[in-house]
Fold this protein.
Amino acid sequence: MPGAGTFREDFGASVVVALVALPLCVGVAVASGVPAELGIVTGVVGGLVTGWFRGSSLQVSGPAAGLTVLVYEAVRSYGLPALGVLVLAAGVVQLGMGVLRLGRWFRAISVAVVHGMLAGIGLVLIAGQLYALGGVEAPGHTLAKLAGVHELGARADWAAVALGAGTIAVMVAWRRMPARWRLVPGALVGAAAATAASALLRLPVERVRVTGVLEAVALPSSGDFEVLASAGALGTVAALALIASAETLFSAAAVDRMHDGPKTDYDRELVAQGFGNTVCGLLGALPMTAVIVRSAANVEAGARTRAARVLHGAWLLLFAVAFPQVLEVVPLAALAGVLLHAGWKLLPARAVYALWRTHRGEAVVLLATATAIVVTNLFEGVLVGLGLAVAKAAWETSHVHIEEVREGTGLYVRVVGNASFLRLPKLLDALDALPPGQPVRLDLSGLRHLDHACLTALEGWERERTPLPGREGVIWPG
């Protein structure tokens, strides 16, 4: 926690982060199909609860756009009362992973899968928020949303579209303003501008509905826990825990590169996130994860210790208790604009371009993961990406190289690399292509790995070939 020399920096940074977090908390809640106050509650827990832990000193947690798709599907499938149970269970899973010191293993996840996951989330988020921007009820599935985009023009409320588009334009333009102006977040400026315009012009657009924090918070009842008997709900719990953990720990790695202070303890950070999500579940709120946008704003605003993120939670709590009615004047189209901008930033266009130039296999994994998420759902899409990444790694590590050298009246053939069943057709084709009837000495001592399938096939090949006179037919690995 801060000393006298760091409190000023942490205090100023906390105000900036709270201003960044506020529109995102509300926007993510609305996009997830839950009351706006629940997004703020999660932001408060991310500051006042998770913020005290020592896992990552400058990383800031709260509701994330990356979990919006999964939460929306969960609320639609199981109802809002079950959300707290699902988040609570996911928090317990995260606590277990942290205690078992599994945090470091998330660093082994393919970067292509992570980028693909973010791209898929971005596409799903954009598809949904286009309908929210136009004030049109969206179809249930992402493919149906994409198929119906061309019909939005005839059904959209163009006043709402103008407010949302104006919000995006302000956010984009705000990044070009002087640095001292950018201390106020662009999302907040854009939403405020849209709110002011709608009030001055008295536009009949839909606005955020506010019920009050105490009314929105609902502790899970004993009957709500029955949802965990469903295999689908358990899959949602696993997806929430794994995706929130992965996003948190990848964000931590990025934040660590932005400052010179203490680096993240991944296992402690996983425990912190698990404890925070457990509290969020008990309050019936949204799940949390560390968010790179808020974390980067925290570092850039000069935060020195974890006090900045704790104080940002206090500011959000103050707003939720003292000024919740302010949200009632915010047009939903403005929040849709904020989330459309967030979804666009999740699309890793530069990463795809760079990978396509250097590692096309990784680019294919990225694009396949994103496509699978759009076609199926977030959990199944990530599983497809992980499966492709493992298959690609297995294929690339199973290279074998075959060298042929003539020795007298016969051939000396040396095989090096990794001989697995994936490369067995190539290996047998090369050996079968050797001139028939000629003596052969096959040297396998350069193989780093020889699996059972290749061993069996090579033993059969050895019985059929004639060795060089006076020499062993096959030199097996030691």
User: Anything to note?
Assistant: The beta strands are 61-62, 289-290, 400-407, 410-419, 440-450, 474-475.
